[in-house]
Amino acid sequence: MGDGPDPPHAGRRATRRGILAAGAATAAAALGGCAWFQAGSPRRTAAPVKAAASPHILRIRPGFIQETTIPLMKQTWQPWLDQNPGVEIDLMSGLGRQQATATSMLAGQGPDVFADWVVPLFTSQHLLLDLTNYVKQSNVNLANYPQKDLALFQQGGGLWGLPSYLHLTAPAVNLSVLDGLGLTYPESGWTWQEWGQLWQSSALRSTSPARSRVGYNWSWDGYDYYGSNPQAHYLKGFGGEYVDPTDGTKCYLSAPGSVACLEWIYGLNTEKVTAVSGGDFTTGSLVTSNFATNVVAQLVGPWSKLKWQLYDEPIYPQAATAYAASDFFAISALAPRPDIAWSFFEYVAVGAQWQRQMMHLIGMGPNQIALWPEWVAALKAEAPPLADKDLDVFVRQVQGNQPYFGLVFAYQDAAAGNAINAQTLPAQQGRTSVATATAQAVTQVDGIEAAGAAEVGSALQAQKAFPTQGGAIAVAPIGF
Fold it and tell me: What pLDDT, on a 0 to 100 scale, did the predictor assign at position 162?
């Protein structure tokens, strides 16, 4: 998984890259005339760190969402700095991503607190501080976070991070197209079969692109970044998964639920009812798209003249589920002052003040369940075109514990994703069966993971343990 240009649609798998960056700068500019930033009175979320003779430098790598508005970001941290006069922040905005971050951490030059989106990259190298005891000592109520989303950071008996924010999607329908075709509007509680029938009835299949109409543009970016497979929450709805829920080194694509989901999705795509990408929601050539919570600035523009509405996700055979990003805050296991790092982490990931500031500053979806009604109220107040839209779809998602990113492989995550995309391509194109393609994917991915485990194990055996302020880090493998 690498950095690169984002795919051309909003509800993409690339949200593990902190997709909020795609619209944050535009949102701040387009909505800046409104009262998006509401600076409340500072509320302390952790005990102040005692001032030292010389200030402690806390190294922060804030991630994509914050780097788009760095000057304003620094303002949101000021209340914490005012309470901790013995600390200065070194904003490591120029640092590389993923493996580059891990490499800098191993070299003793990485951040103390940082944002990322792929947990196993760091846990497999034992670079994250286990937050379990800090959470207990600070009486953090983990029930405040959507549990399916939180589970991504709970591995091997530890807690390696908390969601930095929630980025969600929901189906939006161009009602003008349905009016023109005399089709019934969707309703809450519609099943996946009913949605599929709507897409079939509204799609226009033609050899001429000018006469084509797509029923639904799936959030297809594959298990990994540049693929063309559906996001994991669709598989979850059918009882499937990309990764074995009991073993992060095994692929689960040959399980009955995974096969059933892919047969449904691939079938619609082969019939040109849905598409990997294509269609324009604003012109009606795309009937159903994904409303992504990061694209407010875009929607108060082109979408403002449309007749459209938001709807709940379809009711799937096995589980109610919806997409969520994997972005998280974590603390480096190599941080020289974990107490200071935890104090800052608690301010941005546990307390509500910073989350509220970001909600009003760039429309960021808060990481805690109780704040989502406030998010809805803020968007409706500041963006009039959204006033009659059912933004409570997202409140229902978080309150119903539906947001789900999907499990990730324990070791060679990017390589495993690439293998899945390559092996399933013939089935996507109708050239082989889903059962055959998924069996081949399982064989290849399991081999990749076994090699990855051996490589990491060999490196850890050679290094024995990474030195930290609190002692050596255990070298037991991190598993699911």
Answer: 97
